[in-house]
Amino acid sequence: MILALVVVTALGFDFTNGFHDTANAMATSIATRALRPKTAVALSGILNLIGAFLSVEVALTVSNAVVRIQNADGTPKESLTTDGGTALLLIVLAGLIGGIVWNLFTWLLGLPSSSSHALFGGLVGATIAGLGWAGVNWNGNGTKLDGVVGKVILPALISPVIAGVVAAVGTWLIYKATVGVAARFTENGFRWGQIGSASLVSLAHGTNDAQKTMGVITLALIAAGDWTDTKNIPFWVKAACAVAIALGTYLGGWRIIRTLGKGLVEIAPPQGMAAESSSAAVILASSHLGFALSTTHVATGSILGSGVGKPGAQVRWRVAGRMVATWLITLPAAAVVGALTWYLGNFVGGVAGAIVIFVLLLAAATGMWLRSRHAPVDHNNVNDEWEPVPASAPAPSEKVAL
Amino acid sequence: MSNLGFALEGAWKVLLAGLILGAGLPAVFALGIRSMAFGAGGDAEVDHAAPHPVGRLVAYVLFAVVVLVALLGITYIVASGFGKTISFEHVYPAIVDK
Predict the structure, then answer these.
(1) Which of B2, B9, B33 is most worth mutating to test chain A (most A CB atoms within 10 A of its CB)?
(2) How far off is chain B from A298, nearest CA to CA, in Å?
(3) pTM score
(4) In chain A, whose CA is at the least distance from the CA of B41?
(5) How far is CA A292 from CA A70, A203, A282, A310, B14, in A?
(6) Which DSSP letter does residue A78 get?
(7) How far apart are CA A124 and CA A65, in angstroms?
(8) Which helix (H) or strand (E) holds B96?
(9) Which residues of chain B does A167 touch, with a Cβ-Cβ cutoff of 8 Å?
(10) Contacts with B74 from chain A: Cβ below 8 Å
């Protein structure tokens, strides 16, 4: 019973992961009108689906980087599985709920926060609540980049800067190289470059992010005794995660797309191409070198960089500052939600506790969705001018009022 | 070595790879567009110069380079999904076990 709730919640997280991150790949293409909004999310969804299926690498140890609930080979710690795995399942469930709640909340505010940080934050919080501070892998063991500091905090500080520098240099070079070419001619060419580079980001996103959820579900299955193979992931898990992330992507987090595509910088096609190329290159290079990072941070850094690199372009640093503030609090905030959820679930106890926190999650999700209907952002108004706010589209003022 | 040391060690490699692929490649693409405009002449350029057919040829070569490198990127994603990686040991890329 608890296992079923964990699986459903994990797929729910995967779904929010999808729509939260559509913007990373497609915000620029939508903002420059290289692709129609609906076409862009459909393309991104399909590429995420393909990408998720390509990630056959076993991601079972994904949570090992931050919490100590597994042995080195990926099997759950024996001390947590004595009671049919209830102890571990409750930690995972509370962690996932923390991640989802934070993802939905930042989406409501139109802020591109990192889904990986939300997931890790939720797990860290639930682990502190369930096992104490020693249950968290804060700093690794000093032999490699590991722990909350090495896998989450440092990359979050460094990766947006790298992506920003790369995008700024790329933008500057592109504008230098095309001096004297008619604008009509360049716009068309860069439109294609932009679609190509954005597709690459979508594909990389599918392979990177879907496998985190696959790892979490498989871990839960092992804890409950329904699966024993630590080298493989059940096919239905892979298929379900792929579909969940693709559907989420197709739904499109329009609020976040709007912030990234219109809020930071007024993007022209050459900048869009530079930003997406930078994102794709930095994401691929990092995963090649085992340098864990968040696609969200990279994409935001790239878009900022494309604004810095274009002579005379305006960058809205206030919007950027608000995003950075969100990044800083994502991990602790998701951790607080995860911890509170664990305490509540543990207080009620057993299956009933799991059901109670699951119902609370549904209530929170419904509440935030209803709240979002007050000022909807969808494919029709995603490209409206950022400022001044038109009277017919009150959505932006809603977000700025944070 | 501390986490910070490992992070900085990884960071400059990512920066280098990012600059070459993430900034260099779009720049090559931009040169391709420049060259295409040079080839087309007339309205494609601000100074309305006469067409230069060689520009079109150079442009196709530059675009081909960009597409090839992008395909290499996709191959890398797919290969790493199957537990393989791309080796440049013999200069030309080859798919090998990780």
Answers:
(1) B33
(2) 11
(3) 0.83
(4) A181
(5) 19, 17, 11, 29, 11
(6) G
(7) 10
(8) strand B94-97
(9) 22-23
(10) 200, 203
Q: Which two tokens stand for residue A369?
A: 């969705």
Pairs of residues, one from chain A and one from chain B, whose beta carbons lie less than 8 Å apart: 176
**Cβ–Cβ below 8 Å for A169 and B10:** no
> What are the chain B neighbours of A178 within 8 Å (beta carbons)?
30, 33-34, 37
pLDDT per residue rounded down to tens, chain A (402 residues):
788 888 999 999 999 988 888 888 888 888 888 888 889 999 999 998 988 887 656 566 666 667 777 776 667 777 676 666 788 888 889 989 999 999 999 988 888 888 888 888 888 898 888 888 877 877 766 666 667 777 778 888 888 899 999 999 999 998 888 887 877 777 888 888 888 889 988 988 887 788 788 888 888 888 887 787 777 788 888 889 999 999 999 887 888 888 888 888 888 888 888 999 999 888 888 877 766 678 888 988 999 999 888 877 788 888 888 888 888 888 889 999 989 998 888 888 778 888 888 888 888 888 888 888 878 887 777 777 776 554 444 444 444 433
Whether residue A178 and residue B33 make contact (CB cut-off 8 A), yes or no, is yes
CA atoms of B4 and B7, how far apart (whole Å)? 5
Domain that holds residue A84: 2-400
B55: distance to nearest CA of chain A, Å? 13
Count other C-beta atoms under 10 Å from residue A390's C-beta: 12
Degrees, nearest 5: CA angle A201-A216-A371: 70
**Counted domains in chain A:** 1
